[in-house]
Amino acid sequence: MGTRLTHAPVILTLCQVVFNDIPDWDVKFQSGLRSAVINAGYPLTWSEQIPAVGLLPAFSEDMAQGLRTQPQIMWRWLARSIDNCTAFVFSSNAVSMMTAAYGDYAGLKRRFGSVLRLVEQFLEPKAVVRTGLRYVNLMKFEGRPASEILASSVHGAADDPGSLGTPTQTHCEAVFQIAGGTLIARTVTRNGEFAIAAELMPLPVTLSEERIAGDLGHYALVDIDHFVQTNDSYEIARVLQRLDTSHDTASMAFESITTEEARTRWL
């Protein structure tokens, strides 16, 4: 959906499938899936711990039930391409792909689908509970006003000095229930050095140094995320169909957020 942009501003793309929890998944990963992923073109593998928070039932003195938090440590495996541009993240109930070398959606879908088949072969998931696709776009204004790049509904006060002066950062977030799932579109305008959403850090891939290095001047980050909560069997064809829907929805959001003038420059 939409016109393919040769000079698209996307700098990071993520897709994810969440499935049922796999017992002894790390043993299964190391005993077969790890070698298969290496042979598929992602030879740089390592494991790491990540902090998490669990919710447990708790009772007060009057026996009223509530919830309490408990810090947890979770393990995950990562596999990265030699050029450091694409990585897969494996955990007990999910596989995610992150790439700084997007190219086009057809290529992304092909690469993600090939690893989903390996997951099916070695981890044998039975159910899918969520699919998602997310695009992070970096748009440098290069002396142009925000209104030449972004639709009026999202650039906010980025061009308006007002009584307080010109803001150093603006933020707009919109949430929609659309295409059987949830669309979250975030637009942040900033001045200065590159910054990205905290939940994405640390990145297991290397972003284009040419695009993010130094003082970027006035720029925008447009972060578009569409995901679908599901409860059905693990079928790769169905998963990829949902990603198609997420891609089409993200494309519509991108066109509604950006101006036709900007998209013409990115052709």
Automatic annotation (TrEMBL):
Designated name of the protein: Uncharacterized protein (TIGR04255 family)
